[in-house]
Amino acid sequence: MTGTSLLRPMLATAGPLPGADVEHRWAFEMKWDGVRAVVYLDAAGGPTRVLTRNDREVQATYPELGGPAAVFAGRDIVLDGEVVAFDGAGRPSFGELQARMHVRAPSRTLLAKVPVSLLVFDLLRLDGELLVTRSYDERRELLLGLGLGTSADGCWAVPPAFEGDGAEALAVSAAQGLEGVVAKRRDSTYTPGRRSPSWIKVKHQRMQVVVVGGWSPGQGRRAGGIGSLLVGVPDESGALIYAGHVGTGFSAAALDDLAGRLRASTRATSPFDDEVPRLHARDAQWVTPRLVGEVVFAEWTRDGRLRHPSWRGLRPDKTLEDVRRES
């Protein structure tokens, strides 16, 4: 990767849509339900690199993403985007992507069954020039000039953006069953590795990244296995605070996978820095807090618990240090 240092992706803050009086200053993109990735194309002909937001190399996990790179042979390009898998209705599905996220060498059968695409929404470097100090509008124009197209048929695509109409963009995302939208200031620069108010994420559902600190045994059909996960969210000081238990949203395959991972991390004491309610702690199997996952939920309770959380899946693209309570 000649002359190119790693660039961590810019992150959005949670918030409402910009007001109608200023929305002409913003562009609105769909929020894609996948794994964030930065793709590096080497002018010297080296292999394409695909890195997650915590710099984990996943090119081998998603080998099909290297195919379109041949079109740009001899060019130094860094792209920011989202790796997604589509469901039967053509919508990005985090559940579908779970089948690929943990497989380092996918078989031909898996590649055919769960293909992935890269939805590209930013251009960070082009032919030796670092573009992060240029405005969103300038970077977007250069990105569109690469000719990637808007259809993911070729594994890479640049999805359309709405300019100056956040309400319409949000309505379209809801109608298409998408996660929400990201509003981006059209005059904003790109701040690698930082969460910025120049990008605002607006979701239809409340989601929270959590850390698994234990599990409770199941009953009935889940007897002998996991009944629920005990999860937490670090506070501003880094202390792991208990956020509740998650007992829904699991497939049988997900439960089997989690059981294997958690048995390897068993410990004798609670990893949470506050007290876990006796009802949940009574038969808890504690684990070292290494696994990071994501849940959807209704709201935060007054005592800091997740109300009606449902499991979405593991997030190997995020680390314990990435987890903070969403506003």
Give the helix/strand class: alpha+beta
Q: What fraction of the residues are assigned to beta strands by DSSP?
A: 25-35%
Overall mean confidence score, pLDDT: 91
The radius of gyration computed from the alpha-carbon positions, rounded to a whole number of angstroms, is 21 Å
Largest sheet: 6 strands, mixed
> Which descriptor suits the 3D outline?
globular
Number of helices: 6
- The rounded distance between the terminal residues' Cα atoms is 38 Å
Order of helices and strands: EEEEEHHEEHEEHEEEEEHHEEEEE
Helical coverage, percent range: 10-25%
What's the count of strands? 19
- Which residues form runs of ≥5 with pLDDT under 50? none
Provide a descriptive summary of the structure in words.
- The chain contains six helices and 19 strands.
- It is of the alpha+beta class.
- Strands 3, 4, 5, 6, 7 and 8 form a six-stranded mixed sheet that branches.
- Strand 12 and strand 13 form a beta hairpin.
- It is globular, with a radius of gyration of 21 Å.
- The chain starts with 10 loop residues before the first strand and ends in a 13-residue tail after the last strand.
Task: Give a quick summary of the entry.
The protein is 15% helix and 32% strand.
Search tags:
327 residues, alpha+beta, six-stranded antiparallel sheet, 6 helices, 19 strands, 32% strand, globular
List the helices and strands and how they pair.
Elements lengths: L10 E4 L11 E6 L3 E7 L7 E3 L25 E9 L8 H8 L6 H6 L2 E11 L2 E2 L5 H9 L11 E2 L4 E2 L2 H10 L4 E6 L9 E9 L2 E12 L8 E9 L5 E7 L5 H12 L14 H4 L3 E2 L5 E6 L1 E2 L5 E2 L2 E5 L13
Parallel strand pairs: 1-11, 6-8
Antiparallel strand pairs: 2-9, 2-10, 3-4, 3-5, 5-6, 6-7, 10-11, 12-13, 12-15, 12-16, 13-14, 16-19, 17-18
